Amino acid sequence: MAAMHPHAAGGGEKATAPYGSWASPITAAAVSVAGRTVEGLVVAGDGRLVWVEKRPEEGGASVLVREAAEPGGKAVDVTPQGFAVRTLAQEYGGGSGAFAVQGDTVVFSNYADQRLYRQTLGDCSPLPLTPDYGGPVVRYADGVFDPHFRRYVTVMEDHRNDSSTPVTNIAAVKISDGDTHEPTVLVTGSDFYAFPRIDPSQKRMAWIQWSNPNMPWDKSQLWVGYFSEKGEVQKRTCIAGGNSTLVESPTEPKWSSKGELFFITDRQSGFWNIYKWDEQSNVVIQLYAFDAEFSKPMWVFGSSSYAFLGKDDSSHKIISCYRQNGRSHVGVLDHDLGSFSTLDIPFSSVTNIVSGDGCVYIEGASASLPLSIAKVHMDEKGTVATDFSIVWSSSDVTKYKSYLSLPEFIEFPTVIPGQHAYAFFYAPYNPSFQGPSDEKPPLLVRTHGGPTDEARGVLDLNVQYWTSRGWALVDVNYGGSSGYGREYRERLLGQWGVVDVNDCCSCATFLVETGRVDGQRLCITGESAGGFTTLACLAFRQTFKAGCSLYGASFVYFIIGDLTSLRASSHKFEAYYTDNLVGNKQAYFERSPINFVHTFTCPLILFHGLADTVVPPEQTTKIYKAIKDKGLPVALVEYEGEPHGFRKAESIKFTLEQAMVFFARLVGHFKVADDITPIKIENFD
Description:
The protein is α+β, with helices and mostly antiparallel strands. It starts with 14 loop residues before the first strand and ends in a 17-residue tail after the last helix.
């Protein structure tokens, strides 16, 4: 049985009311504006942190922000009106891939035209660096300043000749004068590039490259190239990933100030650990062996999972984060001694770390702390955190503290004997209400996107919206999720639509059998790839009573006649991803819910943005019409101008409210406390 909830002791008398009907101050409006996210941490020349902030309440604007000059002060917007810092390279982009800072100079990718601009911190007039091609057809990401040749080196994705298979390379852009310049290609020939990183001590560059059909976490290579006197890449050598007998995916290369190359790879153990390249002997040395993940799948550009400590990184210490058993830890690795010491900080999930002036900045969250940036000061030895202060927070949740349901990390059996998968379970909780003694709560199963991604058990008002109204919710890390090593991640290879579906159903069944939830009121929801898993659960299993799919993943809806037509709808980055996850033509057909509408037995609500370039909106329309024609209760909401992943506060609010009312009306057997006008449900209203 579930342990007593942390808030349960003490407090006033609770009113008894049906689960799902409880009144809560965590409104959908509060959730929609609490969705600020941060992307990319960079320390400017004055020692202050600069980052990109995404703001749903401003229509999803991506703004560069600078840390306040004084502790406790308000952060300052750097990006002027009319600009937004966001790259569309590989469609998903990535905030830290959209800008770089050197001294007081910022170079950033502007969302509307995708051109690179140069701006001085404190000045509000960015100047273009790259030509105007008449539209966002050339995209730039993951750039760095080149100290040797006064230029900006960046990943360039060129859509001018073919938008479905753009040419990607590493290019250099002049930044010395005030004119715009055609970029100069430095490295080309591979399908994809990331992490061009320049040695500050010598004229050379490291980078990561990979080619279809691989995703960067399947198989990639780390290269080093040497610059000629003119700045061209002459000699080059493969450091990791070139041995065909060794499957690995190196990532995150970084040069120390002395010209030592560090990186992360998962050779042999299947866990991403930190390595160093010994140039003289041309061998790579593992600095610390640990069955934990020191990096994560590269969906977006510019991740930073470790940083060098001390001025000019003279301490021989690296601060890094790793994930193990559903939790992040931060520690200091002394790469000379081979020792590792863990720091005690209040984050249970850490996504980025950068080194500052006498401090480190850590982006993270926990079950009671929303996504935040913390400034951490260390003792002289660099092994103890002496001060931890929040520089930025995605939302102020202090007024909701007493309403929070804290996650329980659970391990549940899969359909394979002896095998387990993982999830975070949130029991219903509200300080003013309790459920009737003869009733179990309804359950909402949440399936994350990717599918190579991970639910992290951190404070998310989206979750608390449900739990504070009397729902139980479980975030499932089905086989194929990241955070548990390569072997766990590869459970999904050739098995998407099978393993994820089985694990979500097994998790729900486990929670019913352990007496925590009502087996007659099991619902499921998911976004993107999670939307596919949701539809597949409804098509191929009888576990759930209703579902909600948000911009569900593309391949699922194809009545497969020709795999090339499927590939044509997928952008280049993911062109072969579904092939790897699904397999052959027959598997595509057998796992596509659209082909098995006759097996659906329960209500479904669908949401999609009409500006989605990852999953064409007509695919959701197709499944909607098929379910409607079958006579099952169904509803569809489409949003003008919304991309893959809703950015506007009003869309986020409306989606949450309508999903909850839909479940309440069709499965819940209770009246919601909120005043929400439900949309029309076909075959029901």
